Amino acid sequence: MQRFILATLALAAADGACAQTAISSPKNGVYPITIDQPGSYKLTANLNVPAGLKGIVISVPNVTLDLNGYMVSGPMTCPDMQPAGAMCSMGYASSAQGIQILAGDATVRNGTVRGFQSSGIYVQEGGNSFVDLRLEHNAYGIFGSGLHKQSFVTRVSAERHMSNGIFLDGAVISSSAARGNGNDGFYVVGMSSITDSVSFKNRGTGFTTNGPILLRGNNAAQNTALPFWGNGTSVGGNLANGQPF
């Protein structure tokens, strides 16, 4: 009997550890939504954020945010940014970020962030994971500079941004794509790797690398500038405008 009770308590504790806090709208209708306690959170509706405001601010480490197939959106739209003179519908505004990560060690997954005049996702501290995301029509898709830990980017699409699709200091990027951005598709610095990713039709370079960065199985084509630029090291399987790199 005692063994059964202990087992039941253990299962209950495990279930509690996996519980997700639902997010459907900001408190009193005022943005941003601030996550200030570690734990697991999920969207249960689309969030439509007014111009110039942040959508969600994660101010503590060890947070998992499941967008649950929903969208965090602002009002900006961008065309395919490769043609000279192409412009987004609104100008840059540093206060307008879809998701702001202040403390690092966060996971954001499974949804769309679009239409923000700054970054779709702004990263102040590293150690994060970005998985199964669609980023579009922001100033930057993901932006993080001066970070102290690598972040992981897996199956992320970054399209039609005013500037770079993904700009990160220290990253492990895999199976991701950048298309139609106004600057480089990927701009990665520091200890990093990029594998099995594609960068097409960006106004800048497909992949810009600065630091000890390994490149494997990537494909860059039809970018206005170079397919690859910087001191990244090809370890096989890369294509630059159809030619092995």
What does this entry look like structurally?
The chain is mainly beta. 7% of the residues lie in helices and 43% in strands. The chain contains one helix and 26 strands. The strands form two sheets. It has a 17-stranded mixed β-sheet that branches. The chain has a nine-stranded parallel β-sheet with strand order 2-5-8-10-12-14-17-20-23, with no helix packed on it. Strand 25 and strand 26 (243-244) form a beta hairpin. The radius of gyration is 19 Å and the shape is globular. Mean pLDDT is 92; it is low at 1-17.
Order of helices and strands: HEEEEEEEEEEEEEEEEEEEEEEEEEE
Mean pLDDT: 92
Q: Give the termini separation.
A: 66 Å
Secondary structure tally: strands: 26
Task: Summarize the main sheet.
Answer: 17 strands, mixed
Model regions low in confidence, pLDDT < 50 over at least 5 residues = 1-17
What is the molecular shape? globular
What percent of residues adopt helix (DSSP H or I)? under 10%
Tally of helical runs: 1
Radius of gyration: 19 Å
Beta fraction of the residues?
35-45%
Oligomer: single chain
Q: TL;DR?
A:
The protein is mainly beta and 245 residues long. It has one helix and 26 strands.
Topology record:
Elements: H1 2-17, E1 20-23, E2 33-35, E3 39-43, E4 47-48, E5 56-58, E6 63-66, E7 71-73, E8 99-101, E9 106-114, E10 119-123, E11 129-136, E12 140-144, E13 151-159, E14 166-169, E15 171-174, E16 177-179, E17 186-189, E18 192-195, E19 198-200, E20 207-210, E21 213-216, E22 219-221, E23 228-230, E24 233-234, E25 239-240, E26 243-244
Parallel strand pairs: 1-3, 2-5, 3-6, 4-7, 5-8, 6-9, 7-9, 8-10, 9-11, 10-12, 11-13, 12-14, 13-15, 13-16, 14-17, 15-18, 16-19, 17-20, 18-21, 19-22, 20-23, 21-24, 22-25
Antiparallel strand pairs: 25-26
